[in-house]
Amino acid sequence: MAASQPLYERIEKQLRRRLEGAGDGDPFPSESRLAQEFGVSRMTARAALVRLERDGLLERVPGRGSFVRQAAAARPVGTLLSFHDQARALGKTPRSRVLEAAVRPASRQEAAALYPALTTQPASVVAISRVRLFNDLPVAIERATFPATLDALLTADLETGSLHQTLRRAGLPPTLGSSILTARTADDDARELDVDRTTPMLVETRSIIDQQGNPLEYTISSYVAHRYALKVDFSVSAPGNPPHPADGGGDAVRRPA
C-alpha cells in the first residue's frame, strides 16, 4: 500500500473487507469506536464512514448508529407472503413496534373493503398499526384493519408474532388478495422509520379474503424504498394480443395464494 495514500482511504479499504462478512441490518462500529480502534482522530474515521455511506454500504440512523446496508429485501408481488414469514425466509429477525391496537370506527375506504354489502350503517374495525423491523432496522409502517368480529387479534403477540399465523390457527387462512402499488415521501412517518421526511416510500394497499371469499384484511403498508423492494415477473406479448392475467402477464396486483 502506497505510503502517500490518505489514512482514511486505508481505513476505508479495511472496513470494506469487514463488510463482506456482515449481514444486512447488522450494527456497525461508530466513528468514535473506529477512531479508537485505528488510533486516529474522529474526523479521519468519519471520512472513511462517509465514503461507505456514499456507496450505499452503510446507513446512518440518527440516534441509533450505523447499519450495514445490502440490496433491498425483495418480495415477489404474486405471492401472499407475510412480513413475518419473509423475514424468516431471509434469515432475519422480524419484530414490530405497536403504534395502535384498538377497535375504532372504520374509514370510508376500510368500510368499503371489509363490509362491501354495508351501505349506511356505521361500521367498526380492528385496527393494528405497527412499525415493522428487520433485525431492529425499521422497514415499514403497516396499518392493518380487520372486521370487528376479529377483536381477539388484539390479544395476539403483536411485537414478535405473525397475525397471519394467528388467523390460520383460528381457521381463517388468508387465501386470495389484491394489491395496488403507489409511491410517496415519508412525511409524518419519517420519525418512526428513522428517515428524512423526503425519503421515497413504496406504498402497498392490500385487500385479502378468506377461504370462503369473505373480506378478511385491508392493509396499507408503507415501505422505505431503499430497504424493501417488490419483484414483478411478467411476460412480453405481441401488440394487440395482451396476455391473460392468469398467465402472469404483467399483472402486478393479483396475488394468488
Automatic annotation (TrEMBL):
UniProt keyword annotation of Ubl conjugation present: no
Domain HTH gntR-type: residue ranges: 1-71
InterPro entries referenced in this protein's UniProt entry, alphabetically: Bact_HTH_transcr_reg, Chorismate_lyase_/UTRA_dom_sf, Tscrpt_reg_HTH_GntR, UTRA, WH-like_DNA-bd_sf, WH_DNA-bd_sf
A Pfam cross-reference name: UTRA
GO molecular function, one term: DNA-binding transcription factor activity
Region of interest (Disordered), residue spans: 236-257
CDD domains: WHTH_GntR
Keywords, comma-separated and alphabetical: DNA-binding, Transcription, Transcription regulation
Xref: Gene3D superfamilies: Chorismate lyase-like (3.40.1410.10), Winged helix-like DNA-binding domain superfamily/Winged helix DNA-binding domain (1.10.10.10)
Protein name: GntR family transcriptional regulator
Species the sequence originates in: Nonomuraea jiangxiensis
Taxonomic lineage from the root: Bacteria, Bacillati, Actinomycetota, Actinomycetes, Streptosporangiales
